[in-house]
Design brief:
The complex is a heterodimer.
Chain A (H helix, E strand, L loop, with lengths): L7 E2 L2 E2 L8 H14 L3 H14 L6 E3 L1 H7 L2 E6 L9 H14 L4 E6 L3 H12 L3 E7 H6 L1 H9 L3 E5 L6 H15 L3 E4 L9 H9 L1 H14 L5 E5 L4 H7 L9 E9 L10 H4 L1 E5 L2 E5 L24 H9 L2 E7 H15 L5 H12 L9 E6 L4 H10 L4
Parallel strand pairs in A: 4-14, 5-6, 5-8, 6-7, 9-10, 9-14, 10-13
Antiparallel strand pairs in A: 1-2, 3-4, 11-12
Chain B lengths: L2 H11 L4 E7 L5 H10 L7 E5 L10 H12 L4 H11 L7 E4 L2 H7 L1 H10 L4 E3 L9 H9 L3 E2 L1 E3 L5 H10 L4 E4 L13 H14 L4 E4 L5 H7 L5 E4 L1 H9 L1 H15 L2
Parallel strand pairs in B: 1-2, 1-9, 2-3, 3-4, 4-5, 6-7, 7-8, 8-9
Classes of the chains: A alpha/beta, B alpha/beta.
Bound molecules: pyridoxal-5'-phosphate (PLP).
Chain lengths: ~400, ~260
């Protein structure tokens, strides 16, 4: 299956990096392939996911929301995974891998701070030095997570170049890795970057979809009709989708950050509005200008605020396996409130986009449809920001 | 033989090593960068690397990040870079290449980009994030038009891969002196560098130019006998930010060191 030997999903993906990174990427690919199949790795990972990260997460039938929408909605409760988002699935896997590969130092980028916190957590647990790159603008809007990372013993490095958000934090982390790869593993936070990252992150996140499959069959005795998730870089969505790839009756919907609207420049709807291009070592869809300069994006949620997207999503789009839409800031806020009020669950702003999509498009679904929505994270990190936006503070 | 290959042959005959200068088109201003480019030859430069600025230069350190974003603010686009190259065509004799990242080339359209290079007298391309495996299409198209695609090697490139790259490489081989991004370094790991350069020279007699980190004459003195040229960028641009005369003085000094 995908990706192929060159790390390609159809025409997408690959390894578009400076020559200096070729050797470390080959080392990582080899290390990954050898180590993940060992009994030692599997046992350690499964144990940590269960005892430490709180897996499996529930697949919760959201009865009130279902009534409101007029079809059955299940929430895959990644917000209940340790540290409050799906990001921990990937970071425990990667930090454990790095340790078994003999690396001493972990670096990561972060946008919302969720991946930074999850990386800092896994690093603290597995006794690794940890440095997190974070754009200055994100530092400001996610202060709580910055402090959490510090509490966990990570060093947070502010990134002041370019757009001062996630894209530039990735640039800085790559520059660190180019320099320190002999001692350091770079834990990328989504299914982006050069091969083998999109493969590694997808496989670690696939636990979401594998559990979902088992749980929905237990509860409904059948596969769902739709899977829906928000798409930033694309890891929680691919994690949910991928184990269902071959079941063609299960439709995939990815929801991107529509920001202030697709007719403005202030959005992060890469698959909906972007074009093919190369960013961060991978050929995929990119938000760019006529000369291939990468655009500065906007989304109410820092986790979706990224001009690129994982190559596997580009492949799903191109082949029609998944559909991608965008939902604007306002609709995401609506989703945020409705889930809070109807289910007593305050969601992160990222999955609030997926909820917003269901609300706006409820007519597309039939009464008997079963929809599984990946609730990728909890909203604690966003509460202050939403209060500020709505003038409550 | 391409213009770059001729240049290296000429240098060899003179028993000199080449000075390759990187600068960002449009920095510090459009007019100033054109003036600097036009004076390159008389200041001792053998080959010019014209940087088309990119918003996300992952192989570059703080100095080239700065010059790139300034150049973009000054309104430089791929088209203005071609216009400038066109203007240079009849004014300078030394070869000039374009250095940029893959996305601006891809977005422009590879065929159209190469066509424009031909029109504006460009001698080759350096695309740091286009790896060997993905390079054949562009390489061939350039080759058909007497231009070179410059390949990279590093001290970390495995020998088997090194052999493949050296076989396809033409113009010159860009040897990256260190693990890291562009930017001046006080000291370089000479043992590691010399060991790899010897390995390269054993496999191939293609010209090799060393870049990344070069900041002073002393370093050039220690390395020059192992290479055919030196690539200087950040240390020149850093000086240029402070004082243009100092920047010109630096490249003159470097060329002097490379001349005997
Ligand atoms: C809760 C949550 N959901 C989603 C995302 C988006 O990332 P991805 O598309 O990789 O799942 C993030 C990123 O920070 C996040 O924190």
């Amino acid at each position: 299956m995908f990706p192929d030997k060159k790390g390609k999903f159809g025409i997408f993906g690959g390894r578009f990096v400076p020559e200096t990174l070729i050797a470390p990427l080959e080392e990582l690919e080899k290390g990954y392939k050898e180590i993940v199949k060992t009994k030692e790795f599997k046992e350690k990972l499964n144990n940590l996911l269960k005892e430490y990260a709180g897996r499996p997460t529930p697949l919760y039938f959201a009865e009130n929301l279902s009534k409101y929408l007029g079809f059955k909605v299940y929430l895959k409760r990644e917000d209940l995974a340790f540290t409050g988002a799906h990001k921990i699935n990937n970071t425990i896997g990667q930090v454990l891998l790095a340790k078994m590969m003999g690396k001493k130092r972990i670096i990561a980028e972060t946008g919302a701070g969720q991946h930074g916190v999850a990386t800092a957590t896994a690093s603290a647990l597995l006794n690794m030095e940890c440095v997190v790159y974070m754009g200055e603008i994100d530092l400001e809007r996610q202060k709580l997570n910055v402090y959490r990372m510090k509490l966990l013993g990570a060093k947070v490095v502010p990134v002041t170049s370019g757009s001062k958000t996630l894209k530039d934090a990735i640039n800085e982390a790559m520059r660190d890795w180019i320099t320190n790869f002999e001692t350091t593993h770079y834990v990328i936070g989504s299914v982006v970057g050069p091969h083998p990252y999109p493969l590694i992150v997808r496989n670690f996140q696939s636990v979401i979809g594998k559990e979902t499959k088992k749980q929905i069959i237990e509860k409904e005795k059948r596969l769902p009709d739709y899977l829906i998730a928000c798409v930033g870089g694309g890891s929680n969505s691919i994690g949910l989708f991928y184990p269902f790839y071959k079941y063609k009756s299960v439709k995939f919907i990815g929801v991107e950050g529509g920001g202030q609207g697709l007719n403005t420049d202030k959005h992060s709807a890469t698959l909906t509005k972007g074009e093919k291009g190369i960013l961060h070592g991978s050929f995929s869809y990119v938000l760019q200008d006529n000369y291939g300069q990468i655009k500065i994006t906007h989304s109410i949620s820092a986790g979706l605020d990224y001009p690129g997207v994982g190559p596997e999503h580009a492949f799903y789009k191109e082949t029609g396996r998944a559909e991608y839409f965008s939902v604007d800031d306002k609709t995401a806020l609506k989703g945020f409130h409705i889930l809070s009020e109807l289910e007593g669950i305050i969601p992160a702003l990222e999955p609030s986009h997926a909820i917003g999509y269901l609300i706006e498009n409820k007519d597309r679904f039939k009464k008997d449809d079963i929809v599984v929505l990946c609730l990728s994270g909890r909203g604690d990190k966003d509460v202050l920001e939403v209060a500020r936006i709505e003038g409550e503070l | 033989m391409t213009k770059i290959e001729k240049k290296f042959k000429e240098l060899k005959n003179k028993k000199e090593k080449g000075l390759i200068l990187y600068l960002t088109v449009g920095f510090p201003s459009i007019d100033k960068s054109i003036e600097i480019i036009k004076n390159c030859e008389k200041n001792g430069v053998d080959i010019i690397e014209l940087g088309i600025p990119f918003s996300d230069p992952i192989a570059d350190g703080p100095i080239i990040q700065h010059t790139s974003s300034e150049a973009l603010k000054n309104g430089i686009t791929t088209d203005t870079c071609f216009q400038i190259a066109n203007e240079l065509k009849n004014e300078i004799k030394i070869p000039y290449l374009f250095m940029t990242y893959y996305n601006p080339v891809y977005k422009y359209g590879i065929e159209k980009f190469v066509e424009k290079c031909v029109e504006s007298g460009v001698s080759g391309l350096i695309i740091p994030d286009l790896p060997y495996e993905e390079s054949f299409y562009i390489r061939k198209m350039l080759r058909n038009n007497d231009m070179n695609l410059i390949y990279f090697l590093t001290p970390y490139t495995k020998e088997e891969r090194m052999k493949k790259i050296l076989k396809k490489g033409n113009g010159f081989i860009y040897f990256v002196s260190l693990a890291g991004v562009t930017g001046p370094r006080e000291s370089l790991n000479l043992n590691l560098i010399i060991e790899s350069l010897k390995k390269i020279k054993k496999i191939s007699d293609k010209p090799v130019a060393l870049g990344f980190g070069i900041s002073n004459k002393e370093q050039i003195k220690q390395i020059k006998s192992y290479v055919d040229g030196i690539i200087v960028g950040s240390s020149f641009l850093q000086k240029l930010i402070e004082n243009e005369d100092e920047a010109i003085k630096l490249i003159k000094e470097f060329k002097e060191e490379l001349s005997y």
